[in-house]
Amino acid sequence: MARMTIRDIARLAGVSVTTVSRALNNAPEINSQTRERVLQVCREQGYRSNLLARSLVSSRTRVLGVILPELSGPFHASIVLHLERYAQEQDYQIMLCCGRVGGSETAALFDFLVSHRVDGILLVSASSAAPDLLRRHARGTPSVLLGDVSPTATLQRINAVSTDNYVGGAMAAGYLSRLGHRRVLYLGPRRDSVTHVLRHQGFLTIARERGMEVETVFNPGAVSSAPNGYRLARQVFARPFPQTAVFAPSDAMALGVLQAADELGLDIPGRISLLGYDDIEYASLPKIRLSTLAQPTGALAESAVRLLLELIDSGGPGEVTHKLIAPRLVERNTCCSPQQRTAV
């Protein structure tokens, strides 16, 4: 069966090709009755306009490319949901690609999106290599990093939106200090993540000011997952454990700590207080009720899309913007004031 063309639609609707084009583009020069007649014929015939062909005329596809490391985790899934919702409210669609920064496929994903004439690119990444990746591969295409920019990357003119992770780490330390914790385990930061580095710096700054003793156990893995949190927690719980609180720099890692503590009979928060970061959907479940620092995924996604659309509409690089959004403390059931405890 031959594919329906715009000329076929014009013939069936009894109008000109120009009128069909105006109807499909919602142009003001056509009255509502004619537009609806043309659109009805399109629906009946299963006709869809060619976005790439239209983009050659309008210089816009109204498609935004999004690259993120993975979709299996609840944090990134929530980010994508909000990105798509806000983009659609602005009459844009998203083209989603998954690829971890540093992987061989990431450069190919940029080429793929640029070749499909996306109007702009959003890179969701906490990697320290992300700014350089945008600079090299998104040249000529408006782009925004949804993630932190390290101080050493500020000269690369990267537009970015992120949670204020330094402040978030400081808030975590301040909260545990107010509860009375003086010996804390910081479990699972990744050295290759700018986000984790900033959270760690903020936490340690306040901990030093408050006279807290902090032991850090780094996550050598590539992701902050529940299995990695479980593995690290089993290792530290297998030795003498004098700390009264654990801060995990992601809720996924904290869920792994919960599992390990449950298997070993360590009561949370009776023996160990546990604080996470992100406020993923699972954190509020009745059997979990994880205390955490909430990242406002809706506000992050909306701010990133809005900034990208401003860059697209301006037609030039403009001023560099790095928007920081404050996290929020969510107190639930996994943190309390320390009581007399016996070291494991």
Automatic annotation (TrEMBL):
Tree of life domain: Bacteria
Entries under InterPro entries matching the protein: HTH_LacI (IPR000843), LacI/GalR-like_sensor (IPR046335), Lambda_DNA-bd_dom_sf (IPR010982), Peripla_BP_I (IPR028082)
Keywords linked to the UniProt accession: DNA-binding, Transcription, Transcription regulation
Domain HTH lacI-type per the UniProt entry, residue ranges: 4-58
SMART domains on file: HTH_LACI
One Pfam family named in its UniProt record: Peripla_BP_3
GO MF assignments: DNA-binding transcription factor activity; transcription cis-regulatory region binding
UniProt-recorded name of the protein: LacI family transcriptional regulator
Organism in which the protein naturally occurs: Dysosmobacter welbionis
